[in-house]
Amino acid sequence: MKKIYIIIVSFVLLASFAAIKSMSEPKTNKVPTIQDAKNKIEDKAAVSDIDNKIRAVYIDGRLPFNISMIKELKVNTIVLSQEGVRMPAAPYKTNYRALKSLEKNTKELEKSEIDYIIDINSGPGFSSDGKISSIFANDTEALYFAKMSCEVIKRHVSNKNFKGIMISLENTNVLEDNYYNTLKYIINKIQNSYPDVNIILNLYPCSFENNFENLSVPELKNVTLNAVIYFKGMSYPMYATGYKASLKINKNVILSNLQILKEFQEKNKTNMMITIKTPWTEKSDIFLQDVYEINKMLSFNLNIGYINSFDDYDFTKNEDVLKVIKRNNK
Q1: Backbone angles phi, psi at 205, to 5 degrees
Q2: Which domain of life is it from (predicted)?
Q3: CATH number, domain at 239?
Q4: Max Cα separation, the chain?
Q5: Angle 267-304-148 (CA atoms, 0-180°, nearest 5)?
Q6: Measured between alpha carbons, how far is 329 from 106 in angstroms, rounded to an integer?
């Protein structure tokens, strides 16, 4: 009996020590690795066919572009970045220069049978240079912006290559809730007239550098969310400078952030796009290859920067980056 008592006491003491050790050990948030992501996706049998996803590049509608280069890259969609066809300031007259540019560019894409999304980056209450942004405090201007967007849609909705519009109201000085409330208002007004046209809603500009924490995106139907990974400068794989903050950047950081976005996508059952806006400098080809590898696991639509901006954000100026794009679009 005494022997049994000693065994029981020993067992209780061992369990107590284990519990104390567990409580005393600091808890750390493990950064997921590439293998963790592969295992998680394979366990859920959630690997999607990446070939069915959008593989896009930006075209600056104000500048000439090369159709042959587009076809050589084997992208399947163009995001055509255009000024709105209405002026930002009252009385919001027709912007004939922008209208002429839009029609010229879309006709060239349609003639070549290339799918396109029209990215509207200015209009009533908002200018692409950031000098006018009163739309976030003026419902009348938001309404006019929606009406202008409907004008653009009406001109192209019957064309088989037209795949929707993107609304780019890039402003990091407005509160995030105000940003989304304005976009929700505009989108709802557009969808009253065109409920079946896909609209790409850009997430709040600082979302990536904020690790996609506490996303307050409104619930909307037939909307694709676009997460822009924007850097003013980058030294990969060490650090990057975003809109407002400097951040550590490497393959695991990108993976960790995009996994959060993937979980948000699955929870909210929404379509998602990733857009890269970074100066293509030394070793940025390694960054882009890492993005491609991660995206093959997470299966987002992907938009890789500018093809004709003739500056550091134009990937055609970097031969190593071009090789990565061509290799991954085979």
Answers
A1: -50, -35
A2: Bacteria
A3: 3.20.20.80
A4: 99
A5: 75
A6: 23
Cα separation, 197 vs 193, whole angstroms: 9
Cβ(179)–Cβ(169) below 8 Å:
yes
For 278-303, write each residue's pLDDT tens digit. 999 989 999 999 999 999 999 999 99
Asked whether residue 213 is domain-assigned, the answer is yes
DSSP 226: E
Contacts of 223 by beta carbon, 8 Å cutoff, 6+ apart: 187, 198, 199, 200, 201, 270, 271
For residue 26, tell me if it sits in a domain.
Answer: no
**Total number of domains in the chain:** 1
Is residue 210 a part of any domain in this protein? yes
**What domain range includes position 218?**
50-329
Give one DSSP letter per residue of 260-309, joined into a string.
HHHHHHHHHT-EEEEEEE----TTHHHHHHHHHHHHHHH--EEEEEESS-
Q: Tell me the whole-structure pTM to 2 decimals.
A: 0.85
For residue 88, cis peptide bond before it (omega within 30 degrees of 0): no
| Residue 37 within a domain | no
Per-residue pLDDT tens over the stretch 217-255: 999 999 999 999 999 999 999 999 999 999 999 999 999
Encoded tokens for 303: 């938009």
